[in-house]
Design a protein that fits this description.
Blueprint: E1 10-13, H1 18-32, E2 35-38, H2 43-60, E3 64-65, H3 73-86, E4 93-99, H4 111-115, E5 119-126, E6 132-140, H5 143-159, H6 170-185, E7 189-190
Parallel strand pairs: 1-2, 2-3
Antiparallel strand pairs: 4-5, 5-6, 6-7
Helix pairs in contact: 1-2, 3-6
Length: 193
Amino acid sequence: MRALDGPGDVLVTTVGPVERFGHPVAAAAASVGAHYVDSTGEVGFARDLRTRHYQAARATGSTMLPAFGYDCGPITAISPVANLIARRPLGERIVAHVSKAAIGPAGGPDTSERAKTPIHVVARASDASGHVIAQAHVGGPSIYSLTGGLLAAAAARLVDGEATTADVRPLDAFGLGGLAALCAETGLRPVPR
């Protein structure tokens, strides 16, 4: 991987299981200054990425963005919105409910099947007693289309130098406005309630 990547390149990966295969790929990107984006839903890997590779990424100018697919992307995008609505710090407890439509045949559904399976994601901010104080709803394309769109849009922004930090959180990398624009570009839209 180190021989294939260089400073400013973007490595987009869907390798899995990422706990087993992801660290060497992330380490290679961080060591040469290539940006790293993945679609994992493995929360432990995303947490470990910061511990294991963040310093090298910061030193080389690499931006590390794990968990940027359907599993985490919409929640990453709308959780801060729910908190802003509630005028609470980002540290508030976020409870997210994700409803998924049926997934198609092995290998993933084709374009017409994906068009029949849109998503609806809800983020709720709760106070210490568990009372919901704010919520945000977004809808969008199928999980397959959304994941591909999020990965491609993030990669394009990284190539264009639009990331602002080597951090592993998309909100920090793109800012709230940039992240909202990226999500809108991939088809995520507010759902009126």
